[in-house]
Structure formats: structure tokens, C-alpha cells
Design a protein that fits this description.
The chain is of the alpha/beta class. A 7-stranded parallel sheet has the order 3-2-1-4-5-6-7, with helices on both faces. Helix 1 (16-27) links the parallel strand 1 and strand 2. 41% of the residues lie in helices and 16% in strands. The protein has helices at 16-27, 39-51, 66-80, 103-128, 153-172, 198-202, 212-223; strands at 7-11, 31-36, 55-60, 85-88, 135-140, 178-185, 234-237. It has a single domain (7-243), classed as 3-Layer(aba) Sandwich (Rossmann fold).
Length: 249
């Protein structure tokens, strides 16, 4: 799977999973555009990539704002001339009683996690259809689209929506040779991995908690030109946790 000179946009790329995804694409030869609302962390990640010989730029972007997303795509075109791959990773959580969630908080999560996927896919798709080669879009959903803890309604709603809009976009953009897929991560530790316990790891069939690189490698698979027969799917990457049957003793 070669990504040499491919132009890749990653939203929410300053930290966590997005950072891991951006770094791996750069290692594989892609030119990466990092989008994030956090300017300091975003520029730091871009500098880290370029210091290792990769190619990356940072574009400060609030994915809740249509104008920012339009600017992100235009900045990418102005710098690199085209867009091959879009990773819609930006998102936020809200864990709060449904009796206490305000409308403003609800809308903030919806706009950050779900509306941004539509807007970014629409705007990137406009350029992908012009290049004659199509492109690939990956949307980061979550296993919380299919299972829940209490007080996670807005987050669950957005992740379920991402799974649904993925297959809808796959249908709509197919005429332009654009594949659209989702990845649903399970427990991906973005903090200090060494602090995890044996019990944490053994909750998984894989016997370990996930890492950002696990999701990054899944992105590579779904956006490789050799895998253009794969579209409209939701790839669950969770170490088997959602398939583990649990009984209370």
C-alpha cells in the first residue's frame, strides 16, 4: 500500500488518534494536512512530522464552522493542488445526565462530531471529483454507536449517525469514484499506556488495550487504492471487546 505523494487531510489531528493517523500517513510518504482547533498542539504535531522528514502543514480549523472547513479544503488545494484522502476524526464527548444536558451542549456535540463529517465530506468531495481519480473518505465512529453507558446520549447519537451517513455517502459519491467507510474504535488509550492494568488488557480478546496506531493502520487499509472494492462499511477495531460475552457471577 503506497501513499507516496498522496494528499491526506486529517481533522482533529493535534492529539490522540488523529495525531497517530497523521504521523503514520506521513511515514508512508503522504503529504498531510493537519486540521484542529488547537493551534499550539497542531503546529507542534506538524513540526514533529517535518522534523522526521515528512511533509505536513497545519490549518487551524473549527469543524463546527462551515467557513473553516471550506478554508481547510482551499488551503490544501493552494498548497498541494489536490485532495486524495479525508479522515474525519475530529470529535468530542459529553457524559452528563440527559436531565441536565442543555440544548447548547447537545448542539455543540452534534455539530462537532456529526455535522462536521457531512460538511468536510461534501467540500473534499468537490475537489476529489475534479481530479479524475476519485478519492477515499474515512469517518471515525465508535463502538458506542452500538453499545452504551449511561449519560452518553449526544455522543452515542453522533456516532450512530456517523455509521449511517457513511453508507449514505458511499452511495451518493460512488459515481465520482469516492469510497466512504467508517471505523469504530473501541478502547484506544491515548494517554500513558504504562498505567493500564492487567484487568484492563484482559477485557479484550486481543489481551491488550488498543493504541492510536491500531486505528491508523485501519485507515491505511481503507484508503489504499488497491482496496477500492471496500466501501460503505463500518470496520470495528476494538480487540474483540464488543464480541465478548460477559456474565455476572
Amino acid at each position: 500500500m503506497s501513499f507516496h505523494n498522496k494528499i491526506v487531510i486529517v481533522t482533529g489531528a493535534a492529539k490522540g488518534i488523529g495525531r497517530g493517523v497523521a504521523r503514520l500517513y506521513a511515514e508512508k510518504g503522504a503529504k498531510v494536512v493537519l486540521a484542529d482547533v488547537d493551534q499550539e498542539a497542531g503546529q507542534e504535531t506538524a513540526s514533529e512530522i517535518t522534523a522526521k522528514g515528512g511533509q505536513a502543514i497545519f490549518v487551524q480549523t473549527d469543524v463546527r464552522k462551515e467557513a473553516d472547513i471550506i478554508n481547510l479544503m482551499k488551503s490544501t488545494i493552494d498548497t498541494y493542488g489536490q485532495i486524495h484522502i479525508l479522515i474525519n476524526n475530529a470529535g468530542k464527548g459529553l457524559f452528563k445526565s440527559p436531565y441536565e444536558v442543555t440544548l447548547e451542549e447537545w448542539d455543540d456535540v452534534i455539530h462537532t462530531n456529526l455535522r462536521s463529517v457531512f460538511l468536510a465530506s461534501r467540500e473534499a468531495g468537490k475537489y476529489m471529483r475534479k481530479n479524475g481519480q476519485g478519492g477515499a473518505i474515512v469517518n471515525l465512529a465508535s463502538t458506542r454507536a452500538i453499545m452504551s453507558e449511561a449519560n452518553s446520549e449526544s455522543y452515542a447519537a453522533t456516532k450512530g449517525g456517523i455509521v449511517a451517513i457513511t453508507h449514505a455517502l458511499a452511495a451518493s459519491l460512488s459515481e465520482d469514484h469516492i469510497t466512504v467507510n467508517a471505523i469504530s474504535p473501541g478502547w484506544i488509550e491515548t494517554g500513558d499506556y504504562s498505567t493500564l492494568t492487567k484487568l484492563d488488557h484482559e477485557q479484550h480478546f486481543s489481551k491488550r488495550v488498543g493504541k492510536p496506531d491500531d486505528i491508523a493502520r485501519a485507515c491505511l487499509y481503507l484508503t489504499s487504492s488497491e482496496n477500492d472494492f471496500v466501501t460503505g462499511v463500518n470496520l470495528i477495531v476494538d480487540g474483540g471487546m464488543t464480541r465478548k460475552m460477559i456474565y455476572e457471577e
